[in-house]
Structure formats: C-alpha cells, structure tokens
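Risk register update: the risk of archive-format incompatibility is retired. Evidence:
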Amino acid sequence: MPHSVEVRVGNVAVSVTPILAFDIETIPDVRGLRKLHALGDEAADAAVAEFAMQRRRQATGSDFLPL
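Archived output:
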C-alpha cells in the first residue's frame, strides 16, 4: 500500500500520495520504416515518418508506432 506524505499548504495540512510517472518518447526508425513499407530513398525522412504515423492513426487512433 502506498505511503501518504503530509504537506502543509499555508495553515492546512494535506495528505498526498507521491506518484512517479515516466513518459517515454520514441524516435521513428526511418530506415526500418523504408524497408517495412518498401519506400525508396527519394522520400525525405520526415515524410517517411509521417506516412507511418498516419497509417498508425488510421488503424488505431494513435500515432504511436509499435515496437
């Protein structure tokens, strides 16, 4: 069970539970995406990443690419 910590806000003591959250951002593997989708070198890296994220949004509603 998480432990509460008492914090004073002015004259009021408030009991809070500390929470640690991680937010991991990823960088698309453009080289891998080119191979996966059979895209040539003529498209810019940003265009390849956007293409993959648009496909992901259509499939799942989120642009987070799978591992």
